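Structure tokens please, single chain.
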Amino acid sequence: MSLIEPTTTEPAPPSQPEPGSGPRPSSPPQHPLKRVATGLSWTARLLFALFLFVGALQLMRVGASSLDILQPGGFLVRNPGSTLGLGWLGSLLVLSGSPIAATSLTLVAAGEQVAEGAQRFSEMQGFAMLTGSRLGAAFVVLLTAAIYALRGGDGRRKAPLSTAVMALCTTAVIYIPSALIGAALLNWGPFASIDLQFPGQFADLIGLVYGPLLERLENLPAALLFLGGLGVLLISFKAIDTVLPQMDEGRMEGPRAAWLKQKWPMFGIGCAVALITMSVSVALTILVPLVAKGYAKRENILPYIMGANITTLGDTMLASFALRSPGAVRIVLAQIIATTILSIIMLAFFYPQMRSGIWRFQRQMIKSRPRLAGFTAALFVLPIMIIAVSGLVG
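Here you go.
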């Protein structure tokens, strides 16, 4: 059976009780000692995850400062165009934007430690790589949608794939233009002079905790340090996922399901879910079962996607402070301000036009398997072409 149904008829939602209408069983109260033990266990796991997260950033910063392939002028980081493609391609390959976004910050932080007058990884290059990481972050939604499409019955295969295509398109529609606003901010004198850092005691604590370990490892090959740090970073994100509240369609089906039809509440829900889960991949993947089961309509999910794409930068901002890098903080702040401004403008004044355009585009992309395959291939081909062209021009 083909993955894409040839008909364009919208499937009717399956007959089922209204979401949240039935009584929910109440869980039995926990014993006080068990609650204390559960709380201590959660706190310990959270602290361990944060220990891995900050440690991975320190390893990557040390490795990046000596890694030849990431030195200024290298083919992959020759200019902002190269780093845009690198961030985009990297997030596609690791199925997450956060580790690649953190990588861009470590490169900026490492560049700040280069001797005065020497060529360094610039804030604009870091900003471009951060933008690229956002463009590919929603690719995991497409993979999830494909699985749902294969599991779905006749007439229910298009909705998950349509949701994924809309998530990727909405991200591009917001992040590409907002990159111009962010770049203008970084070049604006007052903004470029912003120096936000955690108190000095926090920096001393990082040095106290990780300093001895870094001294023992700093003589290892730079590539080993950088890739090892990236591996630990991926593990830390998985560990953080296990301790943060798990959002799923069950939690979105409550009596306020009517909110899923209004743009500003949907925008707020998207902001909240991404902020809680600290992952746009998780926040957007939730949409797949919601749409597949009929709780949310595809034409109403754009504000949710836009909100999630803003607050997902929360963990990236935390990483910038942990690196003790004013430049890293500035590029994240510029990205947050730019995407927020553009998202609010689009929702307030151009929402019908944007929704109509993205809706027509996704219908064309899921019309047949070859078109969907071409769309998926383009997600990889475009960043590779950007890297190649920027490297040759650069």
